[in-house]
Every structure is written in C-alpha cells, then in structure tokens.
Amino acid sequence: MSKAIGFIVTNAENDPEMATLPFMIAVGGMTMDVEPAIILQGEGVRLATKGYAETIKAEGLSPLEDLLSGILGAGYRIMVCSPCLATRGISEDDLRDGCFVGGAAKVVETMLRCESFVRY
Questions:
Q1: Which of 42, 55, 60, 72 is the most exposed place for a label (fewest CB within 10 A)?
Q2: What pTM was computed for the model?
C-alpha cells in the first residue's frame, strides 16, 4: 500500500461511538488499499487490552471487536501510548496480540508517513 491515513483514538467506554467510528473508517480505507495507522492514547489505550473491545457497543455501528479483529487479522498493528498505559496501571502483558507500545518518537514517525491524521 502506498497511502496511509492515521487515527488517534482517545475514547473507549466513556464514548463508545467515538471509540468505534475510527475503526469503521479504517476498515473502509483498507478496502481502498489505504493503510490504517492507529494510535491509542488517553482512555483509548483500554481498547488494546485483552477482551475489552468486546464490551464496547455503539448504537447503530458495527461491533468494535469485529472491526478491531479485522484490522489486526489483516496484519496491521496498533500503537499504544506508553505513558497512557502507565497512568492507567496497564502493563504490556495486558495487551492483545498485534498491539505494541510506542513513545513520542514513534508517534511522530508514524504521523510523518501518513497522508493525514484524524483524532477521535
């Protein structure tokens, strides 16, 4: 894929709709050969923990777990903010397969390679 679009996801259970929408758009982009670059920050880091996405349900939207599994199943990885994990007492061992911890330098590197970035 030559094009990439980035998503910074900062919501989880606090706003299920805003937690789900970026994943719906990412999956849509994948059908157009656009690589999703997803970074979880703030409350959004909870989405990377094992079993958590199954608990998020936004009325009228696709199940978050299905979208997240589709992205990870296609071989894409999801970056998780290191300080945001620490603040919430979440360890790297709590993350599901396909999610990795990244700091500021990795976030900037990802942003620079994307066509655009959207924050949810």
A1: 60
A2: 0.94
Whether the per-residue pLDDT at 2 is higher than 90: the answer is no
Which residues, at least 6 apart from 36, have a Cβ–Cβ distance to it below 8 Å?
A: 4, 5, 6, 7, 26, 27, 29, 30, 71, 76
How many structural domains is the chain composed of? Answer: 1
CATH at 52: 3.40.1260.10
Edge-to-edge strands, sheet with 34-40: 99-102, 78-81, 34-40, 3-9, 116-119
- 3-state secondary structure string across 37-84: EEEECHHHHHHHECCCHHHCCCCCCCCHHHHHHHHHHCCCCEEEEHHH
Rounded to an integer, what is the distance from CA 110 to the centroid of its chain?
13
Give the structural domain span for 88: 3-119
pLDDT in tens, 17-61: 999 999 999 999 999 999 999 999 999 999 999 999 999 999 999
